[in-house]
Amino acid sequence: MKSATKKLSSEIAETLSGKIESIAAGSKKIKKSIEKAATKLAKKVAKFEKETIKAQAKAAKDAEKKAKGKKDEDKDKKKSKKEKLAALVASASSKPPVATPVKVNAGRPVPVNKTKSAAPKTAASEPVKTEEGAE
């Protein structure tokens, strides 16, 4: 039995050593694949960080341009409004006032005012009393 036990124990030892070696080799492969994935991931993260930094810088630059542009536009608008107002005031004060044109009725008869031609009914219908008729 000793020989059978030795043989069995040697087989178990070989099997275990083979399994351990294969696991060690597998773990090395796994380790290498993990390292490759980590480097790829690190590259992608670095690229993403660069892109976000560029985007933030561009957004800040655009915001700065808009702020400057708005200030300049507001100043220009205010100046142009003041200039227009000043020009209008100057032109209004330098010109003599213009009289409104008179309407001309060319070819149409002038309407007669009926109140002027007809005597008032209350005063004209009653006879005027004089002092001679009262005697």
Question: Can you describe what's shown?
Answer:
By secondary structure, the protein is mainly alpha-helical. Helix content is 79%, strand content 0%. The protein contains four helices and no strands. The chain is rod-shaped and about 180 Å long. The chain starts with a helix and ends with a helix.
Structural class computed from helices and strand pairing = mainly alpha
Question: How many DSSP H or I helices?
Answer: 4
Note the gap between the termini.
186 Å
Largest sheet: none
Order of helices and strands: HHHH
Percentage of residues assigned to helices: over 70%
Radius of gyration: 56 Å
Secondary-structure map with pairings?
Blueprint: H1 2-94, H2 114-117, H3 121-125, H4 131-134
